[in-house]
Amino acid sequence: MNYQWFPGHMTKAMRMMQENISLVNVVIEVIDARIPYSSRNPSLIAMAKDKKEIIILNKFDLADDKVTDEWIKYYESQGLIAIKANSKDPKCTKKILAAIDEAGKEKRERDARRGIKNGTFRAMIVGIPNAGKSTLINLLSGRSIAKTGNKPGVTKAKQWIKLKNGVDLLDTPGVLWPKFEDQSIGEKIAVIGSIKDDILISEETALACLRILHKRYNGVFEKAYAISEVDDLNQNLDAIANKRGCIKKGGYVDYERAAAIILDDYRSGKLGRLSLESPDEIKE
Question: Quick one: fold of 201-281?
Fold first, then answer.
């Protein structure tokens, strides 16, 4: 299946970000800790190249902790500030706000030399759809100000939000990029739920999930569904469907329902803390 999703509102959002990038001092990119490479939008990376950047590996509670630590080291080696976070956990607030303050230290010192007191410091938060930006903003601002939802495409327009540390934060819609040159990237983005499911063939996305996790965590489906996990992905899908009662009238397998169960179980963490990629797999 060809994975792609770049509707008109994303084109508009990218244009808006380009117009506002000069107003901010730092860019905060929220990525998914399960796919820290594939969930980095190259268009956003290019846009932020002249700005200080903070990378938030969000939803780390759903990712393999050891692999997430490897990703933190990977991005720190590139001179980036990288923080793992769970946007639903208030304990993450202090560390993220401290990172934003550190990123603004140079600007504040420059203002002080010019005799400017209490100068404004602005940040822009960006990321792919369903990365958890809105939930993170509510955490950092201490208010339920950004609309949230466990699906892509919730945030539609920009808004300025005041954080607890006084920083003005520009919220932006989640955006992908016009074309995935590497379809394995689009595949992983689909598996975590950052492409609308209703434009995809759910069975194909579920098979992608089965293939990646069978290779990386062989036995995870056998443990979760009490099946005999084998190398044949279709056989695993059939076995899971039968175990979960996904059978239509006439004894036909309901693949759409079985696919939905597999994807929901992975996305919600019911299968365990499982990452879809590691730094040693990246070809620069």
Answer: Conserved Hypothetical Protein Ylqf; Chain: A; domain 2 (1.10.1580)
